Amino acid sequence: MRSTDPDGWDSLEPFLHELYRERLMIDRRELQWSAIAAHVADSGEHQKYGFHNPVDWLRVRFQMGEGAARDRITVGRHMRRLRQTVEAVESEEVGFGHLVEMTGVADALHRAHGGDSPFDEAKLLKAARTETVGRFHFTCENYRHACNAGAFARQAERTYEERELTIRRRRDGMFTIWGRLDPITGSRLRVALANHARRRGAGDKRSFPQRLHDAVAEHLSERTENQLNVTVALETLLALKGSPAAEIAGAPLLSAATVRRLACDSTVRRIVIDPGSVVVDVGRNRRVVTPAARAAVIAREGGQCGCPGCDRPGRDVHHLKPWAEGGPTDVSNQVLLCYWHHRLVHEGGWRLVRMEGGRLQLLRPPPDFYYGAA
Ligand SMILES: [Zn+2]
Ligand SMILES: [Zn+2]
Fold first, then answer.
1. Using CA atoms, how far apart are residues 264 and 257, in angstroms rounded to an integer?
2. Does residue 72 belong to any structural domain of this protein?
3. Cα 101 to Cα 15: distance, rounded to the nearest angstrom
4. This prediction's pTM
5. Nearest ligand to the C-alpha of residue 339?
6. Domain that holds residue 46
7. Which of 158, 159, 162, 309 has a CA-to-CA distance to 255 between 20 and 30 Å?
8. Same domain, 195 and 321
9. What is the CB neighbour count within 10 angstroms for residue 51?
10. Is residue 353 a part of any domain in this protein?
11. Cα of 83 to ligand 2 centre, how many Å?
């Protein structure tokens, strides 16, 4: 729509007003739609209509994305539990998007705790009133981690199961790559390629996908250290109850177990903050692995994973006793592990111990293993 006045501001006012009014109406309609959607979804009639589950039923019947259909059913189911937030949407204090985020937490905690859910609607609503939906998503994720680090970690593990990468050779000799990467691998790849994918001057006519391709080629031909920044609270590093999740630039929040794995090795730059969000430690200090120590460990293990029976190349330096718990940082406490085994020890709850005579042994997680406390 073209404006006629020189600045173009005044003439836009009526349109902005209209946008605002329409948005309010849409948000209120979304509330009604969600309530009915939940009622229909919970009727259990989807099979009669030939659908495998209620989300598919609504998704196909009303031409919606899967996430949109699922969000609305969940909102509808929790509306009675979230009276204050529903009223805040009706009275224009927060948007429907805030309610969707809030419902995600309420649902997760209700599943984990049933009637004893620690969910505190008033506390989150206070944040919702001042935050954008995007920022509020992170507030909700942190709150979910603080309430139940175990459930948070279990969900991260379920998502991790969806990782996949396929590389297929085509008849013309080119390769097709398709994948779903875990947050760490995806972020690492992005950081690793970002520099190489930059345009080389005005004469560089390559498209972005082409530059990304060339970045992969360049990266494969040289070994660089990929630096990721992870922001983590001191309580999280020490696995204290009620601690928030960790943040990594451009990725979803990380469970406490994952961040302790990253902090174990020196391939991330950790930014540790205290409860008042004051930075107490940045980057590498004497505790993390120095290049010399890494070289020594790699030489000692012959470049292979130190786990008994594993012949994958070792990549991460693991501390048998975590340095956050006072473990020494010399090579006697360090062992080279492959990505898979390092993950198994931290996120999977297995324990790697040095037996008498120096032999390493991998011990199963105890039956009462609590995800997130490893
Ligand atoms: Zn480790
Ligand atoms: Zn291994």
1. 11
2. yes
3. 29
4. 0.66
5. 2
6. 14-147
7. 309
8. no
9. 16
10. yes
11. 50
